[in-house]
Design brief:
Blueprint (H helix, E strand, L loop, with lengths): L1 H18 L3 H6 L8 E6 L10 H15 L3 E4 L11 H8 L5 E3 L12 H8 L6 E5 L2 E5 L21 H12 L5 E5 L13 H11 L2 E6 L6 E5 L2 E5 L5 E3 L11 H6 L6 E3 L6 E5 L4 E4 L2 E2 L24 E2 L2 E4 L2
Parallel strand pairs: 1-2, 2-3, 5-6, 6-7, 7-9
Antiparallel strand pairs: 1-12, 4-5, 8-9, 10-11, 12-13, 13-16, 14-15
Helix pairs in contact: 3-4, 6-7
InterPro entries: Calcineurin-like_PHP, Metallo-depent_PP-like, STPP_CPPED1, TAT_signal
Keywords: Signal
GO molecular function, one term: hydrolase activity
Length: 323
């Protein structure tokens, strides 16, 4: 009995000491890792552009149910908060496990605010965090306005001071290895976050961020910067080509109802992926492949100068070791 009481006393001291640990020391503590984690990722479905967005999303959801992943997440450009999109949203909500949203720039098209999109999706917020299977996940909102008068034209793609302060505090209060998700890339200057270098410094200084997932660019690549892997997930639906390469890819009826598709090169089947990390820190990203609908970008005469990363209808299988 005396040994038991002493053990309880020592455990109480240890827990009390941890509770009194300053945040700066807490951030420097070794990260903890638990059991294997598997989660489904899709991005850039573009329900408001694609004629078969519901079918594409259903393919993903049905597969995730079969695979019994721990949770699913979509990385933005999902759907605008129109009543007509409720059947699409209901497909997403049919997944029985946790579901997470990242806001994309096109989700606010039509004059919708972030708050309206969040309420429609019933999302956790514009930016937020959660823990799952011994990992800390941070969801960023890359659609804030740059206060500078010299900001580039086009969609807002900035992370403001208030969100930066929140991010620093959030990272300081976890000892778990951390995964970040943001619609726009933090690792490129091709339409990525305008103050990406500033945000990367926050992630690097925390010394616990291991992966960053992004969508938006409709490409397939990974970059490693100062020990953090930046993984770009390809669109479920297409790559945008623009006016110079416009071509009707489906029927005239589809084109009349969905006129933006002709400015894209669609993927025949939906592509998406499952990310897995085992208890040893081995990361695995499942590959997903299809083909183009109609002529490929190369067949249309696009060069590497038009798109530095090659436009491809797949998500590459990837394997690497996390710290």
């Amino acid at each position: 009995m005396q040994h038991q009481n002493r053990r309880n006393f020592l455990q109480s001291i240890a827990l009390g000491s941890l509770a009194l640990t300053p945040l700066n020391q807490l951030a420097a503590m070794p990260v903890q890792r638990k059991a294997k984690i598997r989660f489904g990722i899709c991005t850039d479905v573009h329900q408001d552009i694609m004629h078969d967005g519901e079918a594409r999303l259903k393919t993903f959801i049905d597969d995730m149910k079969t695979q019994q992943v721990d949770f699913i997440i979509q990385l933005g450009d999902f759907c605008r908060p129109y009543e007509k999109n409720l059947p699409f949203l209901n497909i997403w909500n049919s997944f029985p496990g946790p579901k997470y949203h990242v806001i994309g720039n096109h989700d606010n098209d039509g004059g919708f605010t972030h708050e309206q999109v969040i309420a429609y999706w019933k999302a956790n917020g514009a930016y937020y965090s959660f823990d799952q299977n011994g990992y800390h996940f941070v969801i960023l909102n890359g659609n804030e306005k740059n206060p500078s008068k010299d900001r580039p034209p086009g969609y807002a793609r900035y992370i403001g001071i208030e969100q930066q302060d929140w991010l620093e505090k959030d990272l300081a209060t976890t000892t778990l290895p951390t995964i970040v998700c943001c619609h726009q890339g933090l690792d490129n200057d091709m339409g990525g976050i305008e103050n990406a270098t500033q945000i990367r410094l926050i992630l690097e200084r925390a010394k616990k961020v291991q992966l960053v997932f992004s969508g938006h660019h409709h490409l397939d690549y990974v970059n490693e910067i100062n020990g953090i892997f930046y993984v770009q997930i390809n669109s479920m639906s297409y790559q945008w080509l623009g006016d110079d390469y416009a071509r009707v890819r489906y029927s005239r009826e589809v084109d009349e109802k969905y006129p933006w598709i002709k400015y894209t090169v669609p993927y025949k089947d939906p592509i998406y992926t499952i990310a897995e990390i085992d208890h040893r820190g081995n990361f695995y990203l499942k590959g997903s492949s299809t083909s183009f609908v109609g002529p490929s970008p190369k067949e249309l005469g696009m060069t590497k100068h038009d798109m530095p990363y090659e436009i491809v209808p797949y998500i590459s299988e990837r394997k690497f070791k996390l710290v």
